């Protein structure tokens, strides 16, 4: 590990030297690339340097403990260094894990009502609201691509894009079946109902990321539905793309122009086809799709939102939080931090076993 860290530090120093060279600034593209590389390496280099300082402090304190006058002070510094070193070693092991290449990408989130009729549609809308508020907390932007609404304010399905730095690195843990237990507004007897909604999170891909043959794509245009006044009634700006080889259908109707809707629909199509290809490559297409979205049945849940008890339980890591109101208002960091930590621990274990 030390050899790898030393090599990374040397590369970081080379980048610093190139960025400080006057001739580098004649090439803006090079500057941008070097800045990006530097930003990616900095957490690892900073931690490695802190580790080196802790090791040096330990060794110096060990020598000073031989001096009777310095022994007590040196012993304190020695103990502090002994506590810091294993913590820094673990941080370094985690930082050395292979980085998800999509972590910096935007995400496309698709939510569909599952079991539970109108209450499931209302819950699907609650999840959309939760993720929109989380995006706002993170300084990201959430834009609806398409939605099928119900008369009572729920959604049968909704697709939206979240744009922001690190969106995929956080949102990728949200894929799966979400279960709600609450008394519906339409329930006069006060009985608790159980309903589900499915969430799929895809990294947003550009057309260039996926090989798309224009001959394979049929485009249809139609009038947008929903609020929008005269524009909705008179303009056929909504776009439906059909990928003929796979039968994949994508709709986008939220933008005001046909061109904007087509552009967004192409990115969604590319994301879906990329996901399908990745699953095919790993020979787990059916299993992975079912594990991510499932059929919406209650027993395939990844998380339960129990309103009467005020709790949210993530079944993958056995974590229960009694703060359902703040979670539904977008306070997801505690949940996602725990999921990210569990993912890191699992990957670290796998790395060590191999």
CATH topology name of the largest domain, in short, is Alpha-Beta Plaits
Write the element-wise H/E pattern from the N-terminal end onward. HHHEHEEHEEEHEEHHEEEHH
CATH architecture name of the largest domain: 2-Layer Sandwich
Strand content: 15-25%
Q: How many discrete structural domains?
A: 3
Class by helix and strand content? alpha+beta
Question: How many helical elements?
Answer: 10
Sequence of strands across the biggest β-sheet: 2-3-1-5-4-9-10-11
Question: What would the principal axes of the Cα set say about the shape?
Answer: globular
What does this structure look like?
The chain starts with a helix and ends with a helix. The protein is globular. It has ten helices and eleven strands. It is an alpha+beta fold and 354 residues long. The longest helix has 37 residues, at 28-64. Strand 10 and strand 11 (319-321) form a beta hairpin. The strands form two sheets. Strands 2-3-1-5-4-9-10-11 form an eight-stranded mixed β-sheet, with helices on both faces. Strands 6-7-8 form a three-stranded antiparallel β-sheet, with helices on one face. It is 49% helix and 21% strand. 28% of the residues are buried. It folds into three domains: 2-95, Methane Monooxygenase Hydroxylase, Chain G, domain 1 (Up-down Bundle), CATH 1.20.58; 107-205 and 300-353, Alpha-Beta Plaits, CATH 3.30.70; 209-281, Double Stranded RNA Binding Domain (2-Layer Sandwich), CATH 3.30.160.20. Helix 1 (2-20) packs across helix 2 (28-64), helix 2 packs antiparallel against helix 3 (71-95) and helix 7 crosses helix 8.
């Amino acid at each position: 590990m030390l050899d790898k860290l030393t090599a990374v530090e040397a590369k970081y120093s080379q980048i610093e030297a190139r960025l400080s060279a006057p001739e580098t600034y004649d090439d803006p593209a090079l500057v941008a690339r070097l800045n990006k590389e530097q930003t990616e390496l900095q957490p690892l280099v900073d931690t490695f340097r802190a580790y080196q300082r802790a090791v040096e402090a330990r060794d110096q304190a060990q020598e000073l403990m031989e001096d009777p006058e310095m022994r007590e002070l040196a012993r304190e510094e020695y103990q502090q260094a002994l506590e810091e070193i294993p913590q820094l070693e673990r941080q370094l092991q985690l930082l050395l894990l292979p980085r998800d290449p999509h972590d910096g990408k935007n995400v496309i989130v698709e939510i569909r009502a599952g079991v539970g009729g109108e209450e499931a549609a209302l819950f699907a809308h609650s999840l959309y609201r939760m993720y929109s508020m989380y995006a706002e907390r993170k300084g990201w932007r959430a834009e609806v691509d398409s939605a099928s609404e119900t008369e009572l304010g729920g959604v049968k399905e909704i697709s939206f894009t979240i744009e922001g730095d690190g969106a995929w690195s956080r949102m990728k843990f949200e894929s799966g079946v979400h279960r709600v237990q609450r008394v519906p507004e339409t329930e006069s007897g006060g009985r608790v109902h159980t309903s589900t909604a499915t969430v799929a999170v895809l990294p947003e891909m550009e057309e260039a990321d996926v090989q798309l043959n224009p001959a394979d794509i049929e485009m249809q245009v139609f009038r947008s539905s929903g609020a929008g006044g005269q524009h909705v009634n008179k303009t056929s700006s909504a776009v439906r793309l059909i990928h003929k080889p796979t039968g994949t259908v994508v709709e986008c109707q939220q933008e005001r122009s046909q061109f904007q809707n087509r552009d967004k629909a192409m990115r969604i199509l590319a994301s879906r086809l990329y996901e399908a290809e990745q699953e095919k490559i790993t020979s787990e297409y059916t299993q992975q799709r079912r594990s991510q979205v499932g059929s919406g049945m209650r027993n395939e849940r990844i998380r339960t939102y129990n309103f009467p008890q005020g709790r949210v339980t993530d079944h993958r890591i056995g974590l229960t939080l009694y703060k359902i109101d703040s979670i539904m208002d977008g306070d997801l960091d505690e949940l996602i931090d725990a999921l990210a930590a569990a993912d890191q621990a699992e990957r670290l274990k796998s790395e060590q076993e191999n």
